[in-house]
Design a protein that fits this description.
5-stranded mixed beta sheet; 14 helices; binds adenosine-5'-triphosphate
Length: 452
Amino acid sequence: MVSNLMDKIVALCKRRGFIYPGSEIYGGLNGTWDLGPLGTLLANNIKNEWWKSIVLSRDDVVGLDSSILYHPKVWEASGHVASFTDPLIECKICHERFRADHKKDISEHEKMHDKQKWTEIKPFNLMFKTYVGPIDNEENKTYLRPETAQGIFINFQNVINSTRVKIPFGIAQIGKGFRNEITTGNFLFRVREFEMMELEYFVNPGLDEKWYEYWREQRLSWYLKLGIKKNNIKLVDIPKKDIAHYARKATELWYNWPFMGFGELEGIVNRGDYDLSQHAKYSGRDLSYLDQDTKEKYLPYVIEPSVGLGRTMLAFLLDSYYEDDPSTHSTGSGQASSGPSGKRVVLKLHPKLASVKVAVFPLLANKLPLVNLSKDIYYNLKKQINGMVAFDDRGNIGKRYYSQDEIGTPFCVTVDFQSLEDKTVTARDRDTTKQERVKIENLEKYLSTKLN
Ligand code: ATP
């Protein structure tokens, strides 16, 4: 286990342009983070992999992109106005507020005062309020959505009427959610604004159990295929007494976080027909499904895998972080590719997730034929490779390898003097640090095969 792993990830993310604190020049805004250039690429890659696995590779799921603001009745129907709350407790001495069920925070705080006094526990609604139009009154009050799921339920009939979907089928959505969390922390783990990736999979009520099992396994295998270590992730069934009132069953995918041990990464819930029946009641519309073959009419049940993009990104970053001794690796130039600490830092991100796929270097920046050839290769790869290609001619080659290892670039291509003679380059693998000479004319094929 790497010591101070979270601190190292937070520092690396800022230094290399993955993630910056939100509104930093004004002292920051709690619970917000901004994605930098590399973070944007990583986030897009994660979203693409999710979308590919949930929508594009299947024939039973369609996509949706609903607005963030909904009619206020949506939130009455869904139960969020009445019960999307966390238990709030306040310290009577310093007025700091905590989530009453976050026992660790509470006991930490109790060490600060000799005689601790707490207020009663009160429910605190996590939805951000806002007003639609120029008049700030109750009638115009609505909320920033705390989840994307309701946007799917309120479009259920639209999707049925405008597409050829038949039960079982799903509607997937990626979009922002907002929660005015009582306390935030642990970097991207608990924030107030975050992107969510959610699937609502509609099934025949008698078959919900089977589909629930199916989605639990699908979601676990998605993480494993993208490189999360088996020992760091597990499915945990949530006991009935701890699940939301509308849920029939709930499982969580837990990741082994360095700051808390195993805890929630993703939720997978059997929501029954709660949402559709509530929206049918509040809207007065018939939201039932008519099976064209059997003429049976019913409200489908829903299986929902739901995850925050930031939490997923944090898991991938933590899981892929390695430090090793540079003396055990060859850089091909006789120089160790190590950072200031002397350690080689590597993000062993799955190639499909890596922000930069390939980096191209001229061995020496002041030799024009090397620079020209490497620029040609760079611009060609930029057109050919599915993903970001970078160019670097700063410092020595060892430093450039170090710099790409640290952001997780799977391959570095170096143009050297031999390249000018025999039209080959070296391709260096991030994980093994081994280099192979590859013909320039075969380079695109070589890299594409390795990256896929
Ligand atoms: P918790 O009990 O930890 O507050 P929750 O059970 O309310 O979380 P869900 O409503 O199940 O969370 O949210 C679905 C997913 O959205 C979570 O598994 C997580 O990945 C993500 N998520 C929820 N809240 C946050 C947050 N404040 N910051 C980042 N991601 C979040």
